[in-house]
């Protein structure tokens, strides 16, 4: 009887699901028919008047607005449309963004590179192509519990309009990755980009909205402030129409978001250390460190920023790095470069001030600043330092990696913990000793912990998993996905749907 009851319950649920799916499909068919009629009418009018059909007023600028109020209002209208749309239309919108990022990666990557003037062009292109690996609606799920008292379904519902702050380091990739995650969850977005990456972010928004509207009739799934400022960012934080904040950026903007009364998902700073012990595959460690630190000239928050290597293999590791694209600076050159890359603290106990002209520049350009002419294809600069060098203590975004000689593995792990600063972001180890790997993982307690590979492996690029350009460490959500941008909604049916 128990098995028969379970079968009848499953049959009842399946029938219920078929009814729901049929209803949703009918609604989608009606909307599709209405959209087709609108398109036919527009085409007929254009033939009669000799003018091209006009875009809807709400999409006159395809999502780019002069002020926050208009951007939020349009995103709210977009959310109301999206709420009535089918899951298939949502999937179509996401596929369009992924396709644009992949097919137009070279053009868009070049535009971003020309605007921001930081990083490496080939990596700007690669980051856009990688948007195809960001998870979409397939990540959504519904949880159900059935028993003597009925059926409870927990759905993962959208917040509404999300206010997003995006960085200059990955302006369009962050926006596009957030679009995939957030729209998959049923939200729309109003974006206040970093001013130095606003043009490429706005161009992406125009292209996304135009293509999505043509395919689905949906409008303003993402809007953007075309001329962003600190004031407009604060307006996004404070706006009543914004239900959730998602901030990707440096310490200042992260602190501002955390002070907001709204719930905030914050992807904050990192200073990822690398530990190399005596059991490591030295060639693989050297290759991985160069690959991670060189990617987009070390603009990634997960990039290898400083290396702590035990004395037994230190010299061997230093020699190996030069065989994988690194250029080694001697002690005098390292000191000279450190002196121009950072200004001393302005006050006792303060931070060194990073020379912003050096951010994201090629290794050959950096070497030229101290009078060195090196091959343009050089991936990184590196040199031996002590633990007090500003390249160790501060999060820097350029392809120079300091290597610190340590007495033993425990010493290396202790320094890694100290100079990660408790951000809880990313740490990396190269070791064949499982005990050592486990010890460091527990000590560091970071969101990303990569073993025996480059930092990108932590985001599914060379390792298992999926990609996101927003890694929420201060607020604890970790590598964001569509489920990150949902709230739980419980639906309870008492007794009537009890079949068993």
Give a description of the structure.
The protein has about 500 residues and is of the alpha/beta class. It has 16 helices and 20 strands. The protein has helices spanning about 1-50, 70-85, 85-105, 105-115, 120-130, 170-185, 200-215, 230-240, 250-260, 280-295, 315-320, 330-340, 365-370, 390-395, 410-420, 435-445; strands spanning about 65, 145, 150-160, 160-165, 190-195, 220-225, 245-250, 265, 275, 305-310, 325-330, 340-345, 355, 380-385, 400-405, 425-430, 450, 470, 480, 485-495. The radius of gyration is 26 Å and the shape is globular. The N and C termini lie close together (about 10 Å). The model is unreliable at about 1-15, about 20-25 and about 25-60 (pLDDT under 50).
SSE-based structural type: alpha/beta
Shape, principal axes of CA atoms? globular
Q: From the 3D coordinates, which CATH architecture of the largest domain would you assign?
A: 3-Layer(aba) Sandwich
CATH class of the largest domain, please? Alpha Beta
Biggest pleated sheet:
7 strands, parallel
How many beta-strand elements? 20
CATH topology of the largest domain: Aldehyde Dehydrogenase, Chain A, domain 1
Helix share of residues?
40-55%
Main features:
alpha/beta, 2 domains, Aldehyde Dehydrogenase, Chain A, domain 2, Aldehyde Dehydrogenase, Chain A, domain 1, 500 residues, disordered N terminus, 7-stranded parallel β-sheet, 20 strands
């Amino acid at each position: 009887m128990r098995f028969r009851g379970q079968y009848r319950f499953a049959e009842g649920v399946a029938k219920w699901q078929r009814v729901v799916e049929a209803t949703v499909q009918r609604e989608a068919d009606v909307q599709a028919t209405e959209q087709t009629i609108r398109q036919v009418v527009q085409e007929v009018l254009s033939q009669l008047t000799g003018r091209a059909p006009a875009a809807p007023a709400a999409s006159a600028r395809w999502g780019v607005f002069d002020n926050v109020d208009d951007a939020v209002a349009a995103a709210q209208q977009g959310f109301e449309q999206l709420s009535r749309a089918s899951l298939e239309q949502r999937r179509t919108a996401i596929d369009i963004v992924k396709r644009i990022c992949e097919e137009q990666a070279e053009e868009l990557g070049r535009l971003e590179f020309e605007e921001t003037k930081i990083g490496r062009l080939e990596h700007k292109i690669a980051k856009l192509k990688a948007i195809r690996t960001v998870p979409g609606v397939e990540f959504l799920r519904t949880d159900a519990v059935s028993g003597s008292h009925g059926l409870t379904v927990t759905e993962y519902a959208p917040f509404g309009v999300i206010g997003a702050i995006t960085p200059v380091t990955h302006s369009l990739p962050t926006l596009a990755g957030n679009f995939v995650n957030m729209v998959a969850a049923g939200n729309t977005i109003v974006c206040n980009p970093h001013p130095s990456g606003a043009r490429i972010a706005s161009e992406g928004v125009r292209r996304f909205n135009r293509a999505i509207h043509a395919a689905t009739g949906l409008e303003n799934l993402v809007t953007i402030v075309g001329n962003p400022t600190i004031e407009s960012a604060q307006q996004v934080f404070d706006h009543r129409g914004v239900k959730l904040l998602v901030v990707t950026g440096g310490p200042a903007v992260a602190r501002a978001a955390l002070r907001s009364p709204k719930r905030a998902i914050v992807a904050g700073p990192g200073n990822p250390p690398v530990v190399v012990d005596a059991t490591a595959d030295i060639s693989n460690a050297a290759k991985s460190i160069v690959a991670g630190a060189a990617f987009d000239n070390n603009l990634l928050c997960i990039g290898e920023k400083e290396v702590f290597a035990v004395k037994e293999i230190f010299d061997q590791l230093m020699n190996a790095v030069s065989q994988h694209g690194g250029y080694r600076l001697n002690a005098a050159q390292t000191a000279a470069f450190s002196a121009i890359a950072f200004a001393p603290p302005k006050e006792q106990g303060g931070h060194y001030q990073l020379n912003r002209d050096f951010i994201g520049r090629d290794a050959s350009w950096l070497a030229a600043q101290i009078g060195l002419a090196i091959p343009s294809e050089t991936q990184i600069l590196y040199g031996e330092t002590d633990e007090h060098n500003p390249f160790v203590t501060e999060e820097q975004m350029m392809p120079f990696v300091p290597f610190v000689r340590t007495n033993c593995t425990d010493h290396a792990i202790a320094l890694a913990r100290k100079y990660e600063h408790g951000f809880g972001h990313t740490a990396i180890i190269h070791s064949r000793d499982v005990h050592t790997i486990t010890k460091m993982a527990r000590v560091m307690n970071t969101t990303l912990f990569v073993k025996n590979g480059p930092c990108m492996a932590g985001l599914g690029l060379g390792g298992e998993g999926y990609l996101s350009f927003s890694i929420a460490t201060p607020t604890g959500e970790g590598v964001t996905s569509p489920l990150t941008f949902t709230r739980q909604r419980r639906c309870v049916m008492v007794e009537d749907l009890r079949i068993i």
